[in-house]
Amino acid sequence: MLPNLAAGLFIRCKNTGVAALRPTEDGFESITNEAFAGTVRLQARGLLHLGLQPGQRVLLMAANSVEWAMLDFAILAAGGVMVPIYPTSSPQNIQHVLQDSDCVPCVYDITDGLSYRNIRIHGG
Predict the structure, then answer these.
(1) Please, how many CA atoms are within 13 Å of residue 7, restricted to the half-sphere of its CB?
(2) Contact assessment for residue 58 and residue 107, using Cβ atoms and an 8 Å cutoff
(3) pTM to 2 decimals?
């Protein structure tokens, strides 16, 4: 039995091949298993460096994307609990989730596309 979903991802990514496809202007870009897992590990280390504690909730607000999936797995790999909220949520819904979930760090995207330069992390 696997300890968590992130462990299953790392086992799966030991195989060579394509983990995901990222949309581009010309079609799609392949992301290898190695690159996907490497990014997840790097982001998990970053979250731990910022002080994420086991079981701590992390709010993730961004549009669906490969980067969203990587951050989701990174939160899990670091021992956190991901609390998703969609950018289309109403301000009232966002406020409710923030108050009810006891999230300390929050990761959100300030543009339509999640990229490393757009990620903002609060709390921690």
Answers:
(1) 5
(2) yes
(3) 0.79
